[in-house]
Amino acid sequence: ALTKLLEETRENYTQATKASMRLKNELAGLESDLMTSKSRYTRLENQLQRHKKRAEERERMLEEIAAGKDKDISAANSRTMTARNEVDEVTRAKLAVQRELQQAKAENLQLLSDIEGLKHKHQLQLSEKDKRFNQDLDELRDEVENLSMKNIKVKN
Known about the structure:
Blueprint: H1 2-66, H2 73-155
Keywords: Coiled coil
Coiled coil: 6-150
C-alpha cells in the first residue's frame, strides 16, 4: 500500500511537471506573439508620425499658396491640386494606419489577457498539484507511523 501510494504521488508529480512545462511553453508562445505585436505597434506609430509630418508640410504649402506668395497662377493651381491630392492621400493613409493601430492595440490587450489567464490557470494547477502532493505525503507519513507502531507492538 505504501509503495502504491508512493507511485501515485510520483505519477501526480510527473503529471504536474508535464502540465507546468506545457503551460510555460504556451506562455512563451503568447509572450512571443505579444512582442511581435508590440513591434508592429511601434512600426505603425512611426509610420503614423511620418504621415502626420507629410500632411503638415502639405498644409503649409497650401497656406503659402493661399496667401498669394506664388505669382504664377497656373503653377500655383497645379501645385494646389497636387498638394490637396497628397493631403487626401496622406489622410487616407493616416486613417488606415490608425485603424491598423487600433487593431494592434486590441490584439495586444487580448494577448495580455490570454497571458494573465494562463498564468492564473498555471497557478491554480500548481496549487492543486501541491495540495495533492502534500496530502499524499501526509498519507505516506501516517502509513509509515502506523507501520512503525505495528512494528513496535510486534516487537513487544
